Records
---
Amino acid sequence: MTSPDFLFALLGVGALGAAALPRLVARRPLSVPLVFLACGMALQLLQVPLPEIDPVADRVWVEHLTEICVIVSLMGAGLALNRPFGRRLWQGTWRQLCVTMPLSIAAVGLLAWGVIGWPPAAALLLAAVLAPTDPVLASEVRVGAPTDSEHDEDEVRFALTSEAGLNDGLAFPFVLGAGALAVAAADGGVTFGGFARWALLDVVFRCAVGVAAGLAVGALLGWLFFRAGWRAMRLSEHREGFVAIGATFLAYGVTELVHGYGFVAVFVTACRIRAAERAHGYHMVLHDFVEQVERLLTAALLFLLGVFVAQGGLAPLTWQGAMAGLLLLFVVRPLTGWLAQVGTAAGPRERAVIAFFGIRGIGSLFYLAYALGSHGFGVPAGELWAVVTLTVVASVVLHGMTASPVISRLDRLRLHRARAGGAGPDPDEDEVASKRL
């Protein structure tokens, strides 16, 4: 039995580690999530008394803990983006959402159906669960803290951050579609009416409500933060970072109440708040607080994931399931990501990096826990968890070890080109970021 006092001590060490590790692993082929994942596995293998982790039996707390982590990270991503919203400025993002995401879902679904032998509903569920990307698990590939410049974000960091900000929510229609397919299979088959209902309600209506609610809440909060006539309510003048958590929960809760996609709304809310007063220093306060909360939650979840793996969480895994997850990381995402970026502002090296870093993480764990609370999919829940867990663990290791060397190499090349292009020995961030590789 695990002692509560031991858990308190472990939480204290973990929180201190989450504060110190980003500087300790900087510029090294490591990431904070990778360290916490390894620590969870190591402590369990050393027979340290840790609680039993069972995401099937404890599905509810897994769902809600991962849910909180995802919405907090979405708020942080939206607040960090400096580039104004626009069709051309976000061209790479739209390509990732409209090309890479559906092609990846189709490919993984076919793999799960044809290689693993799962029924269509379970195959679609796996594809939808593994659709969201998550740069939180490799901080080098995401946009940094907000600045007052609209042009200092390189194409790689911007594309990966903005893609993750939106596809975390846009995976929801496909997860719900998998549930509807499971119900239809039990009732005798898919009908045109059922498909039309899914397309109109789960795809069009709920996405539109998510965007509209995010814009409305973001506009209200932007006015409250920066322009409210009553000084006591003009929150930017008080510089309290926890307000970002309030904005996150408000946007998410209101949108879910009106049956929209809360993940979409949180990211849109953050972008709208940023647009209300783009150069204000309060964005840095909000972003820093969100980043600290996000780091703590991510560290805790990756530690627990490591414990789960060491306790035998991958025991139900088959070689077919392992192949499907690894093919997503090594073949499907790189190919579809490359195709989507052809013709965008990114250069060939940048396209390759954007395509490769399709990181799978906390969003996948949330969607699986959420889906298994509503439907049966004809596949043991433990086997589904094993495939998704392997994919997330492989992504944390692969991308966590490669992110720093790869991104550092791109940064050095951009700096060299900026200097060679006449920007002088010390070019500013805008000149460096504008160089295509």
Note: The two ends are 55 Å apart (CA to CA).
---
Amino acid sequence: MNTRIKCLIVDDEPLAREIIENYISRIDHLELIASCANALEAFNIIADKSIDLIFLDIQMPDLTGIDFLKDLNPSPKVIFTTAYSNYAVDAFNLEAIDYLLKPIEFSRFLKSVNKVLKLYKSTSALLELSNSNEAETNYQDLFIYLKVEKKMQKIFLKNILFIESLKNYIKIKTCDREIIAYKSISNIENVLPSTHFLRVHRSFIIGIDYIDAFSTTEIELKGIKIPVGRNYKASVKEKLGYF
């Protein structure tokens, strides 16, 4: 799996945060995005950044981890990290991946993370392409599954005009519909074949096959104008040719 899972730690104990931070740093598939001391701060981080997995304490000031998770809709995957065993039923009713009791050993932490990795592989948009020639041959049949309103929706790649980032969500514009899914644009970019898709802006990925015209500042596809970001002009120029 090439994509790293973006993590958030929410715990009011500095030592507990430090331990989890250390554990995350030892696992290549995990990337720590932020570490905070309370649920209110966590709300702001989730609103501003893409988070895949939360390591969440339960007993915290102002708002418990249980109530915090109830208020997230949709929520990233969650592993509870707590000193209290009596909330386990509530945690699993909220579809938590695991429930770790402090003090947490690294071996137990790793076992929990492996559950996430297996789930991530099974639910993420995975394209198994053995080589570039086979990929091109099979492109018409390639599809991804994305979670849309608690269901996994099948989307054929050949039908995607563009993808737009909406913070923690993405909007996928196809030939006949619009789909809003809970996923970051960076995660979806990692599973799209570069022969047919191009990131042209921090908020946009376009389907190359649908380009009608392009310039240094925008790309037109099916009557829709997509801006070219300043930091993406070089890659767009390299991919599409000189202006």
Note: The chain has two domains: 5-123, 132-240.
---
Amino acid sequence: MFIEAALNGSRSKADHPNIPITTEELVVAAKNAVLAGAGAIHFHVRDHNGKETLEAAFVNEQVKAVKAAVPDIPVGISTGAWMEPDISKRLELIRQWEILPNFVSVNGHEPGFEQVVQAILEKQIGVEAGLNSAQALENFISRDLLKECFRLLIEPEEQEQHAALATVKAIEDKLTDKLPHQTVVLHGVDNTCWELLEVAKYKGYDLRIGFEDTLHDPSGAVAESNEALIKAAFHQSA
């Protein structure tokens, strides 16, 4: 069973004291996640003030450190538009990266996503397609970019299970006969996280878990760490 560990997302220490923010914290979290069974690491790069960033100095520093800590595991980062809303500046920041992640996630609903995909491909980095809706998928398809993505992230944002599953179905309906080589990860966020993990297992999809997706274990208790969430995912899916 493949699990991608999503270590921090946009969360802060105010959300949970063990959210990994610094380079040192990310290294420890990545190591522990892999020891718990994670097959890939995903995180949001932070500057020295803990703010999400795409600036090369911080991408280089944190990607280098995490890749060195888990040398046999693919390491990916986010390119979320909120980190740099100006698409021209975002592209320039990406082009300045020197220490490269193995993959990045690109959200299909964000304006200019196709330019981000092209900039990432030019650097020979793998692309995960972030699909929060059928329209996000259609955006990839209409621009002939779906084939360039090695992994698809079906990630409904709805917090009610029925609505989240409706989004999953709408995406799946558009994916018929359009998966020549991609793997698919299905994950929920907060209220739908553990229910969708079970759905992903049932459907034969890969899984994602970590503090980005939830702060709570399946019982509803606050989880101690990313490692604990990964162990719980393996246990729940046994």
Note: The two ends are 10 Å apart (CA to CA).
---
Amino acid sequence: MTLLKQTSYQPLTEAAAIQLALSLNIFTENAELVCKEIGDGNLNLVFHLVDEQAGKGLIIKQALPYAKVVGESWPLTLKRAKFEADALKIFGQIAPAYVPEVYFTDDILAITVMEDLSHLLIARTGVIKGETYPLLSKHLGEYLAKTLFFTSDYGLGLSAKKEQVQKFINPELCKITEDLIFTDPYFDAETNEFEDGLRAEVDALWQDEELKFHVNVLKRSFLTEAEVLLHGDLHTGSVFANNEETKIIDPEFAFYGPAGFDIGQVIANLLFQVIVNESKRDLFINHIETVWIVFEDQYTHLWNTENKEILAKTSTFLNYQLSKFFEDALGFAGCELIRRTIGLAHVADLDGIEDEHKRLAAKRKTLELGEVLIKQRKEINNLPSFIFKVKGVL
């Protein structure tokens, strides 16, 4: 039985990945492929295959039925591979410059075969190494504007959007987000992970009823507001980049939710560098400003030229929408800052600081800024006010 006729799931080996790649007629029949499993995430196998003679490659990504970060005791649905593949195809149609091309998918094997991005570097890795990526924020702003508009009621149409909502009911992976971002960091959950040096700050956070109220409001928004098709996990580890090109990967958490969630994830993961990288602080503040300015400009243009909802074609309602997105984004960014500091699945931006004193100081600032953004998101109602609050914490 060939891989393309499998009737049951099995994890790929490097040899099986080569067999699959050759069967897809992407390479020549006599291609001598080199394959390496390169996955460094928590949920998947990732195979990089190259025909070195022809200088051609591809990626095969396969979902695992459990979370690698925990093991087989944390089972996960394989259906997430279909959510990811379907989202990549939709986002690829909307913003092809920023999404890898999908060549083949198989729901039984839970695999997606896609464009080789090995000429790029994971953005988080790059910025930690000192890369500045001058076009990254512009590209992310454009990607957000296009995907968040064209998957909404206003860009897609009311009926078509309702059909899409049904296709992206993703309860298992949404549950991970609900727990790890909106629940577990706010009490003594087993999944939490933090240094003893943060115990006082964490205990205070757990006792902060005002903070927990606001997090519950944001969680309710995440649970109930099916505004747009979200990537759902849009951090700098889900972005490949160089100085000219940006590609967004890994939308397996895709579902219909509040637009501010994706925007907030981007902002938070750029804020990590604002906090830890003093020598490039202004550069990353500028990146954050550019993301929002480009998003606002592009979204406004699409609203005025492509809007399918006639009663919404007003500047008053547009301004209402943008204000809501900004407020939500700040709150969700705050949740991401806290989660990545004391919850499960930290970020190398913080954990990679070798000096314990500096690392703990950075994490304290991260927690403080997260609380400020969550509690004060309604008062911080424009970009200058936001940057002023960020600098106040630093």
Note: Residues 121-393 form a domain with the Aminoglycoside 3'-phosphotransferase; Chain: A, domain 2 fold (CATH 3.90.1200.10).
